[in-house]
Write a structure and sequence with these properties.
Layout lengths: L16 H5 L6 H6 L8 H16 L2 E13 L25 H13 L4 E6 L8 H10 L4 H15 L3 E5 L5 H7 L5 E3 L24 H14 L3 E7 L5 H18 L2 E8 L16 H15 L4 E3 L18 E5 L16 H10 L3 E4 L18 H10 L18
Parallel strand pairs: 1-2, 1-8, 1-9, 2-3, 3-4, 4-5, 5-6, 6-7
Amino acid sequence: MTSAVAIGATTPHFPSFDRLAAGADLPDGDALALVDLGDVALNELCAAAGESRDRGRGNVITFSPKVFIPLTRVCRDFCGYCTFRQSPGEADDLYLTADQVLAVASAGQRLGCTEALFTLGERPEQRYSEAGDWLTQSGYRTTLEYLSAMCRMVFEKTDLLPHGNPGTMSRRELEALQPTNPSVGIMLESSSPRLYEAGGPHEFAPSKRPRVRLRTMELAGELGIPFTTGILIGIGETRTERVESLLAIRDLHRRFGHIQEVIVQNFRAKSDTPMADTPDAAPDELMWTTAVARLIMGETVNIQVPPNLSENYERYIAAGINDWGGVSPLTIDYVNPEAPWPQLKELERRTREAGYELRPRLPVYPEYFANGSPWPLPEPLKEKLLRLTDQNGYVKGGTQRYARND
């Protein structure tokens, strides 16, 4: 437990809660000083974050109706908490075929989904010859090249919009996704080098090195690609390291303006992993970190907490979130298969009872394409975005279009 200062006090390194609620910029030193407030000030911290959110995002909380497409679960990395990755001998399919991908996307379209979330293992061909052989026999050199082709197919043959989440990417690989992906993503998870030291959760996961993940985010900014990222809390990092991770994300956003969304995700232990006995991230830790994320990122960046990973997920509205992320009426959360998505009616009810309106969005937020946005999205992509949305950039029909499926 950290020491606490007087609630609402102004220290040499910390502005008042009133200033934070009013949208005051939070310098790096002041952000780090939030760690020293302690839990006694959690309510005031959340209140400031909530007011900041209201100033910048109004009374709308969004979600993205999606299908989850695990293009491959074979991965070169070994993370201490992951059950998504598989070795070739464990996988029913090394890769989903084009027919399988299209079947999932088409089924999602019939249910009103607008996002095709492509999540996949990191460059499995670099570790497993089986993956390389499958790609060669299918006419592709790399997993990222196959991903690009599947995104193009979904973009051209359905109303869904791809959102690629394949791990680290080069400039060339990002450029290949750009015509069909209105946004891409990679979780930073943490900028702490301690986590990939011996015994850490990322010891055997070379792509989880903060430097390479931040470089992917930087390249996306240089290319003008709206980007989703976030941190994972409860995997051995400290509160100070969480703040440092958020500051690294903010630095990139200040340079390029492309960080459309920051996810604050809580660790949940899974059996048959090295971290099976690690305690889940505590709700108050998630509450504190969410509020801090809002105050660091400012009043307009979208802040998300996944609703399927918390029992009383509505409490995080008070900490400044304005988005629930992707919610699927069709596919499970393959990364957290033990955690079902909330029913849409229940998600809408809890959001409404907290005083907010639930609205469906595309995988890219309205500020990047609607109402004359100057953001330089490819024109064919922008045309599809505008066709699917209303005058405010939200999915046409609102939540009513999903009532028959819930």
